[in-house]
Amino acid sequence: MAYKGRYSPVNKEKYQGNPSNVIYRSLWERKLMKWCDLNPDVLKWGSEETVIPYVSPLDNKIHRYFVDFYIQVRTQEGELKSYLVEVKPKKYTKAPSTNPKKKTARWFGEVKNWGVNSAKWKAASEYAQDRNWDFIILTEDHLN
After folding, report:
1. Which phi and psi (to 5°) does residue 142 adopt?
2. Which among 14, 37, 48, 68 is annotated as catalytic?
3. Would you state the pLDDT for residue 63?
4. How far is CA 30 from CA 49, 68, 107, 143, in A?
5. Domains in the chain: boundaries
6. Has 41 been annotated as catalytic?
7. Residues of the chain with pLDDT under 50
8. What does the pLDDT read at residue 2?
9. Which listed residue (14, 29, 48, 86) is catalytic?
10. Which residues are CB-neighbours of 72 under 8 A, at least 6 positions away?
11. Active-site residue 81, yes or no?
C-alpha cells in the first residue's frame, strides 16, 4: 500500500525549495524527510527539486527525472558531502529475470520499468559525478 502526503519541515531554512509544498510518496520517503529535517549534520536537503534529463529506452526520447532527494551533510571529519538519493523498494533495484518460465504481462512491465529506472540512475550517477556528489539508492533495508 502506498502512502502519500505533505511533510512540513520544522527547519524550513534547510529545505531547498518551497517548504510549504513537500510531498512524500511513501512512508520511507517521509522517514528520510524527517531525518533530513531534524538531523543537525544535514545542512541542506530537497525533495524532487533536482531534475535530470535522461533518454528513455522505450521511446529513445529525452524525459525528465525528478530525483527523490538532494542532501548535503557535514561528515564527522567536518567536510561537506552532497548526495542525490533515490528511495525505492528493494524489489525494484534488481533486474528482472532474463529467462522467465513465462513471459507474462507482469514480466514485460518489470522489464520496461527496469529499463527506464536504469536509464534514470545512469543519468543521475553521471550528473552527481560531474558535481563531485554521490548518487545512492536507499531501500527499506536502509530506512528501517
Report:
1. -85, -30
2. 68
3. 98
4. 16, 11, 29, 10
5. 5-143
6. no
7. 1
8. 62
9. 29
10. 42, 43, 44, 45, 80, 81, 82, 83
11. no
Q: Could you name the CATH architecture of 5-143?
A: 3-Layer(aba) Sandwich (3.40)
26: cell is: 511513501
Rounded to whole angstroms, the Cα distance separating 7 from 94 reads 29
Task: Report the pLDDT value the prediction gives residue 67, as an integer from 0 to 100.
Answer: 98
Question: Which residue of the set 31, 88, 112, 140 is catalytic?
Answer: 88
Write the CB contacts of 64 (distance below 8 Å, at least 6 apart in sequence).
51, 52, 53, 54
Instruction: State the Cα–Cα distance between residues 113 and 86, nearest whole angstrom.
Output: 15
- In single-letter form, the type of residue at position 58 comes to L
Report the phi/psi class of residue 137: left, alpha or beta, with left for phi > 0 and alpha for psi in -120 to 50.
beta
C-alpha–C-alpha distance, residues 86 and 71, integer Å: 11
Grid cell digits, residue 135: 548518487
Instruction: Note if 29 is an active site residue.
Output: yes
Side chain identity at residue 127, one-letter code? Y
Radius of gyration over alpha carbons of the chain, in Å? 17
The whole-number pLDDT of residue 18 equals: 97
